[in-house]
Design a protein that fits this description.
The chain is α/β, with parallel strands linked by helices. It contains eight helices and 14 strands. A hairpin with a 2-residue loop joins strand 12 and strand 13.
């Protein structure tokens, strides 16, 4: 994402203080707006919809974000489950670029509203116990992810943060966005997205690949600009990604989940260093 759209940033005045002097200057900050994700489906022979979630995000790639979110939460399982994705306005009018996106499910897709409510509580809420969250994920994915066909060199992993940062146009302009990038085994960038929320950036990447019918993902590497939380590991596992690397630290629950599902988890990827938390057999530590 090297090009910055006017909707991505907002112009502000700021008093900048440095070296004992102050000046009033123009600046830009990352835009953060709510996105309501709605689900459209057939119930008792008629079409209906249900507001499913509201997330704070950087506008852009909203369809990918919505599709990736629904996939990582186990609401949909393939691109074939989606009939259409569109923006909504008042009275369900389709509007381009609004803050409401409706994902219309195919007629053959059934929705268990009771399970849906329960699943969203256990996987999306802050502060819910880790045991419940892992049990909820086990209903979405029952088998480990497929490992890399050959170990990836640590020198390749060390290059990923620089490549990712070179594509972070919004971060360079504002300092306020996270990024997630998908790479092949040799370190070639496949897709990258930025967002104020690191989980949104990952959903945009996964949703991009879902809509292109590339899931499940195999033999690819996911690099994120922040820390590796449980939620990011969850999204990687559901998408089948075998390796997640981050410039920051993982949480204890992220490590536990990665170990359980066979995900290689690497943190503190900075300069010529990195920490391997799980999946050492999938990484060639070059000396």
């Amino acid at each position: 994402m090297s090009d910055i759209r006017s909707r991505d940033v907002s112009n502000v005045f700021v008093v900048r203080h440095a070296g004992g002097t102050s000046e009033r200057v123009d600046d830009v900050v990352a835009v953060e707006e709510p996105l309501e994700i709605q689900l459209g489906f057939s119930e008792q022979g008629r079409r209906t919809f249900r507001p499913l979630s509201i997330t704070m995000r950087t506008p852009g790639a909203d369809f990918e974000l919505s599709a990736g979110f629904l996939f990582s939460e186990g609401v949909i399982h393939s691109a074939e489950d989606i009939a259409e994705v569109h923006y909504c306005g008042p009275a369900t009018q389709k509007l381009s670029g609004s803050n409401v996106v409706r994902v219309e499910l195919a007629e053959t897709v059934s929705v268990d509203l009771t399970r849906l409510s329960r699943n969203f509580y256990t996987t999306s809420s802050c502060g819910v116990c880790g045991k419940s969250s892992i049990e909820a994920l086990q209903t979405v994915r029952t088998s480990p992810v497929e490992p890399l066909t050959i170990p990836v060199a640590s020198t390749v992993l060390n290059r990923l943060p620089g490549i990712l940062q070179s594509q972070q146009g919004l971060f360079r302009a504002t300092g306020g966005n996270h990024a997630a990038g998908l790479f092949d085994h040799a370190g070639k960038l496949l897709v990258v997205h930025e967002d104020v929320g690191r989980h949104n950036a990952v959903d945009k990447v996964v949703g991009d690949q879902l809509l292109k019918r590339n899931l499940p993902l195999r033999d690819v590497l996911l690099m994120v600009s922040g820390r590796a939380s449980f939620e990011l590991v969850q999204k990687a596992v559901v998408a089948g990604i075998p390796l997640l690397a981050s410039v920051g630290a993982p949480s204890s629950l992220a490590i536990e989940l990665a170990s359980q599902f066979g995900l290689a988890l690497v943190g503190f990827v900075r300069g010529d260093r990195l920490n391997v938390y799980t999946g050492l057999d999938q990484i060639n530590l070059v000396t």
